[in-house]
Amino acid sequence: MSLAPDSGFDARYFRTALGRFATGVTVVTTTAPDGTPIGLTVSSFNSVSLEPPLVLWSLSRASSSLEAFRACQRYVVNVLSAEQIALARRFATGKTAERFHGIEAARAPAGTVMLGGECAAWFECRNRSRYEEGDHLIMVGQVEHCGHSQAAPLVFHAGGFDLTPAGRPEEPVR
Ligand SMILES: Cc1cc2nc3c(=O)[nH]c(=O)nc-3n(C[C@H](O)[C@H](O)[C@H](O)COP(=O)(O)O)c2cc1C
Asked: Which residues of the chain have pLDDT under 70?
């Protein structure tokens, strides 16, 4: 096993260690106060509670969308399929307001903007609570509506997208 050097805390080593945790990839979408649809690529998504149905994700305090996400009523967590890798790249770069240009958008049941096309899953959330921690804002959402497809999910680890198509696990473990 490879251990972190003991002289102080090595942030780069920490990032590399975190990268060994494979995640899915989401794009979280909402509407800015001026009515512009906005969104960004997020891999820090996770489940929190079944009753009530809660999920979380964390937003960098350096995000240009910080205030819009802090203030919005609802957002949608769009879980990307392997086919949607271009959306993962688009929503991680460039100007926030331009990310929706030329792509298919849709509305979730309560009216929140979401990605069009077939995601692996989506969760329309009420912006329930927020916790300032370190350089991120932890966002806890109460899921009001959700959906899923059979599309293989996009996987991210070691700082890159996994281009081998994600198969189905042999047997569900829980
Ligand atoms: C795979 C991947 C996962 C990411 N996960 C997060 C995340 O969980 N939280 C976050 O704030 N940024 C995350 N980012 C970075 C943002 O997508 C990126 O910084 C984006 O440009 C922020 O846009 P904004 O400033 O318009 O909010 C991720 C990027 C990639 C490529």
From this structure: 1-7, 165-167
Question: What is the spatial distance between Cα 137 and Cα 70, in angstroms, rounded to a whole number?
Answer: 9
Residue 54, ligand 1, Cβ within 6 A: no
pLDDT of residue 24: 97
Nearest Cα to Cα of residue 153 among 79, 81, 47, 86: 81
pTM, full prediction: 0.95
State in Å: Cα 92 to ligand 1 middle.
Answer: 5
pLDDT at position 173 is: 81
Q: 16 φ, ψ to 5°?
A: -65, -40
How many residues in the chain? 174
CA 38 to chain centroid, in Å, comes to 13
- DSSP class of 167: -
**Ligand 1: does its nearest atom lie under 6 Å from the Cβ of 96?**
yes
Residues forming a β-bridge with 89:
none
